[in-house]
């Protein structure tokens, strides 16, 4: 997920959904807002870490069946391989990112929370305005 936000207010402008993006998208994709200086738009790429597990997979060979001369695939053993099962957000506010991805919460109802150096600390729910 890539999040674009107003650096001054923390308001979220837009997102690019997905956990894996090619280098071209990461390096070149940007967003512009009419009336807003491009230098005021921040871009946060959510880091993801692979969740890996050792699993057993069959070792297969092709053999020719005598009589019919038909080629068949035969399992001759098993081996253990390390496989990536999924990618998971690699941040302290992982649950919030998962809620956004699942649609449980709308990211546009939130503001990005930054420290004084501009590092993303998480997301805060926007205050609702009550019309009288």
Terminal CA distance reads: 37 Å
Chain-averaged pLDDT: 87
Per the principal axes of the C-alpha atoms, what is the gross shape?
Answer: elongated
The parts where pLDDT drops under 50 for at least 5 residues are none
> What percentage of amino acids are in beta strands?
over 45%
Widest β-sheet, arrangement of strands: 2-1-3
Elements, N to C (H/E): EEHEEEHEE
- What is the count of β-strands? 7
Sheet/helix structural class: mainly beta
Write down the Rg: 24 Å
> In this structure, how is the largest beta sheet organized?
3 strands, antiparallel
State the share of residues found in helices, binned by percent. Answer: 10-25%
Describe this structure in words.
The protein has 132 residues and is mainly beta. The chain has two helices and seven strands; from the N terminus they run ββαβββαββ. The strands form three sheets. A three-stranded antiparallel sheet has the order 2-1-3, with no helix packed on it.
Quick take:
The protein has two helices and seven strands; from the N terminus they run ββαβββαββ. With 132 residues, it is mainly beta. It folds into two domains: 2-47 and 91-125, no CATH class; 52-84.
Question: How is the secondary structure organized here?
Answer:
Elements (H helix, E strand, L loop, with lengths): L1 E5 L5 E5 L6 H6 L12 E5 L2 E18 L4 E20 L4 H9 L7 E5 L5 E6 L7
Antiparallel strand pairs: 1-2, 1-3, 4-5, 6-7
């Amino acid at each position: 997920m890539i999040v674009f936000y107003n650096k001054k207010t923390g308001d979220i402008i837009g997102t690019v959904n997905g956990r894996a993006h090619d280098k071209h998208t990461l390096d070149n994709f940007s967003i512009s807002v009419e009336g807003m200086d491009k230098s005021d738009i921040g871009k946060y790429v959510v880091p993801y870490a692979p969740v890996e597990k050792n699993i057993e997979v069959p070792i297969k060979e092709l053999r020719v069946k005598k009589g019919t001369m038909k080629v068949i695939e035969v399992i001759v053993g098993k081996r253990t391989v390390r496989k990536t099962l999924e990618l998971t957000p690699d941040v302290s506010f992982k649950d919030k990112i998962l809620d956004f991805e699942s649609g449980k919460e709308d990211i546009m109802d939130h503001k990005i929370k930054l420290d004084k150096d501009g590092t993303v600390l998480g997301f805060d729910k926007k205050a609702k305005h009550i019309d009288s």
